[in-house]
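Researcher: Before we compare anything, I want clean individual predictions. No alignment, no superposition, just each chain on its own. First chain goes here; please echo the sequence and then give the structure tokens.
Model: Echoing the first chain and its structure:
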Amino acid sequence: MTLCGAVYVGPDARILFGAVLTAEDGEVRVGARSVVVENALIRGRARHPSIPGDDVLVGPHAHLNGVRVGDGCFLATGAALFPGSVAGAGAEVPPLCIFIQ
């Protein structure tokens, strides 16, 4: 696991082996009880902080880049969300799905 810059990890959240949360350009805030699985990448942007809400599961090899993710979302293996994207509460983003604003 690598945390770099202005990264906040909420209570009871878990960041697993190989995950990278980088806030060198903008904030990253992981909500309570969320899980960031192996080899996922969450990157904050100056204009678009990355904010996964509470009870979010970020699957392996998922890539979140300057996004807002509502509470209770499931982001499957390899999902990619790009700057300005929003996944509403309870959304399920399937494998290899790309969100672009």
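Researcher: Okay. Second chain, same rules.
Model: Second chain and its structure:
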Amino acid sequence: MLIEHVGASPRIDPTAWVAPNATVAGDVVIGPNTRVLFGAVLTADGGPIRVGSECVVMENAVLRGTRKHPLRLGDRVLVGPRAYLSGCTIEDEVFLATGSTVFNAAQIGRRAEVRVNGTVHLKTVLAEETVVPIGWVAVGDPAEILPPDRHEEIWSIQMPLDFPLEVFGVERSDDMMTEIMTRYVRGLNTHGDDRRLDS
């Protein structure tokens, strides 16, 4: 399904293929010979998405571009099933396995791998050819790669990166969720005027 969002329409190279039940919304460019498989969602929520050539975005993956954090995939990138990417930069020949998560302002270097259920956190810089093991967390610049059971160490690096402020523009506080959700819901109202292009 191709959707015009806030006046921008997807641009898909004629050699690319998008599954009929994938959703591509807004300012999304899909490069030559790329494949977007069944159930995938590419949504430019205020910021563009650029997908290079010969990429594969597998089933039920979600790619989101935001106003502050556009999303870019280089060439020959594999995005596995159920992966979630938001406002990040992925260089060429990267492998993002099933269930991997890459957060806003993260950068993943050429030929890096994020294995099954691995996480690359907010503002994290993962060097070329680095591997995030199954279920592990990469956090910081340069990235430290830690197992999930070392939460206190992960949090000591993650907390100053300030997810609520970076992503939602809201200072961390006891009642921050009220402000975050008010802003988030208001921002997503822009989808009310979306127009399906391929019906």
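Researcher: What stands out in the second chain?
Model: Residues 4 and 122 are 28 Å apart (CA to CA). Additionally, The chain has a mean pLDDT of 95.
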